[in-house]
Amino acid sequence: IVSGSRSSKTFKPKKNIPEGSHQYELLKHAEATLGSGNLRQAVMLPEGEDLNEWIAVNTVDFFNQINMLYGTITEFCTESSCPVMSAGPRYEYHWADGTNIKKPIKCSAPKYIDYLMTWVQDQLDDETLFPSKIGVPFPKNFMSVAKTILKRLFRVYAHIYHQHFDSVMRLQEEAHLNTSFKHFIFFVQ
Fold it and tell me: Is residue 7 over pLDDT 70?
């Protein structure tokens, strides 16, 4: 197995928020608040904003961040080094998307993360779930979809911390990983 072909497959294209859109303005607000260094303040819903839209913008942002972070360590996360998707001996994750794979399957970490990132990308690209046009309402199940996405993205952080933190430190990316994870945890709380 050539890891090059797998890593390029696992690393998903960045999900862009159209410039000039309301979501773009929200993202810029989030980035500006993040720049203040106060992560607790950065995750707060801006006054007068729609909660669903705020969650959507941040979910896209976390997807992009995790995608980028995992992309830097794909060469260390292989079928042989990570035959099971886990975050230590007590946390093993099996994949099911409810559509193509209904019964959870045991798979390697790179396979699981590829399934996961592809699945998240599909959710984010679905205009009925994540409408990009202003005035198009979010579906009634939006909150539960967003929670599932965030719960699954957490597993990638958990795997990186548990299995690959030494690589992250060798690459001198621990500050970036820690800030991203702290921001993520404040947001989901």
Answer: no
